[in-house]
Amino acid sequence: MQDYLSKYLSHLSIERGLSNNSLSSYETDLNRYLKFLQTRKVDSLEQVKPEHISQLLWQLKEKNLKANSISRNLSAIRGFHKFLAKEEFSSVDPTLVLESPKIGRKLPIVLTYLEVSKILEQADVSTFLGLRDKAILEMMYACGLRISEAIGLSVNDLFLKDGFIRVFGKGSKERVVPIGSEAIHWLKRYLIKARPHLAKQFSQNILFLNHRGRKLSRMGVWKILHFYVNKAGIKKKVYPHTLRHCFATHLLEGGADLKTVQEMLGHADISTTEIYTHLDTSYLKQVHKEAHPREQAQ
Predict the structure, then answer these.
(1) Active site includes 170?
(2) CB neighbours of 182 closer than 8 A, spacing ≥ 6?
(3) What is the distance between the alpha carbons of residues 136 and 186, in angstroms, rounded to a whole number?
(4) CA distances from 240 to 32, 91, 147, 257 (A)
């Protein structure tokens, strides 16, 4: 069945444009699934039963895997069998009668605006690397970017005169995101005063460079943020994705509508964006008080 897995991974890569990280996760989950089937003496697709998949999910639960990890495994298995049935490699899809495990919605950690500002103020912008750090953190907060989107930017993706940037998100989906004046200011300073000193002949048009002139890595951004969080004295657990959470939450608190925030974040499903409405009910209460006719009548 490894041949079928290879065909499915090729399908995800070529036709759906999944990133290497996503492909690696699918490969890991599905290899675990195929090995489990081997332990149950299942050596053909037609022999797979819904109970086999249920048994695997139960086994993962007993190993104390988190609910979202179990759900991700089931999603990978569903996609695999759907592909096999569609391509007529298999006459049955054993996942059709399975229910997804219920997952408790975990609210992300979000910083206050003052906490974000304190972090952003820590960079020493008199140095080339400090100016780069300032530019990338300001931009990630201003635009709500994923870390992969930020480090994947090219100089050609910036349209600063028009006030927006072009971003390639999950599945290489392109979107246009507005960028504020503060982030524009620091990006321009970085481009003029720092990037030329970091760039090498092989740097091409990569926007954010490390001290060797190569593309800044995910770990590089994590270390940068971690350094400034500690320097600012923030005790919360902060990750690069936290800036994206802050972007969405602060926009909604400021009056932005959910659909617009969804578009800027690049969420395919608005239910993903809705989690941010649970982070600060004070804003929703205020809107209700100002807009509801029974409140206005008092």
Answers:
(1) yes
(2) 138, 142
(3) 9
(4) 30, 44, 6, 24
**Which 3 state secondary structure label does DSSP give 105?**
coil
Looking at the chain, the domain(s) classified CATH 1.10.443.10 span: 113-287
Site of tokens 């697709």: 45
DSSP codes of every residue in 244-284: HHHHHHHHHHTT--HHHHHHHHT-SSHHHHGGGGGS-HHHH
Per-residue confidence (pLDDT) for residue 69, from 0 to 100: 83
The single residue of 11, 72, 214, 267 carrying the catalytic annotation is 267
Catalytic residue status for 146: yes
List every span in the chain annotated with CATH 1.10.150: 2-86
Rounded to an integer, what distance in angstroms lies between the CA atom of residue 81 and that of residue 45?
9
Catalytic residue among 170, 185, 214, 218: 170
Q: Would you call 32 a catalytic residue per the annotation?
A: no
Architecture of the domain made up of 2-86 = Orthogonal Bundle (1.10)
Measure the CA dihedral 142/267/23/137, to 10°.
Answer: 10
Burial class (CB in 10 A: 0-12, 13-18, 19+), 67: middle
Percent over 70 (pLDDT), the chain:
90
Determine the pLDDT at residue 245: 92
Confidence of residue 123 (pLDDT cuts 50, 70, 90): very high
Nearest Cα residue to 111 out of 245, 272, 256: 245
> In 3-state terms, the chain is what percent helix, strand and coil (to 5)?
60, 5, 30
Which architecture does CATH list for 113-287?
Orthogonal Bundle (1.10)
Active site residue 245: no
141, 190, 228, 276: the catalytic one is 276
The DSSP call for residue 103 is -
| Catalytic site residue from 81, 134, 195, 244 | 244
Q: Which of 132, 146, 195, 245 is catalytic?
A: 146
